[in-house]
Design brief:
It is a single chain. The chain is globular, with a radius of gyration of 16 Å. It is of the alpha/beta class and about 170 residues long. It contains seven helices and five strands. It has helices at about 1-10, 25-35, 45-55, 55-70, 95-110, 125-140, 155-165; strands spanning about 20, 35-45, 75-85, 115, 145. A five-stranded parallel sheet has the order 1-2-3-4-5. The two termini are about 30 Å apart. Strand 4, helix 6 and strand 5 form a beta-alpha-beta unit.
Length: about 170
Amino acid sequence: DAAEVFEGIKRVPGVRYTALVPNVRGAERALQCRVDEVNLVMSIGEQHNLANMRMTCAQSLAQFAEITQVIEGAGIFVNGTLATTFGCPFEGRQSVDRVLGAVENYMELGIEGITIADTIGVANPRQMTAMVSTILRHHPGLALTLHLHNTRDMGLANALAAYDAGVR
């Protein structure tokens, strides 16, 4: 019902209207709905991506390449979320190098913004600071955002740590 929802929204100036786009058909629908931003999601943990998206990370990236081609030139901001950045329920903690590699993969596809997600709520402020600092050191000026959970009452502490490390 996404099209109907977008049709019914009274748009407010200055608000960016975003749609989660899972595939090329979703990208085509997003164009029809005149979204301002699309969000693409891939898990850093290969096993989580297989369970959640029913495809490997390589397959997700190939699909994202098709999606970005569909919306190219439409003036739509493309954001890529990296799920399980701080820990995967199947594989445990993810390495900073793996996350940086995924950021690079996203940027090569023309993805403009990156969201790092604490999908299962296992991050701590020290880990958040290290991840954000490393990403922004490698990609200064990157539109970096967060998706946090408060599973262990660390959501606010992690948000403050990310802010102190440069997330705006």
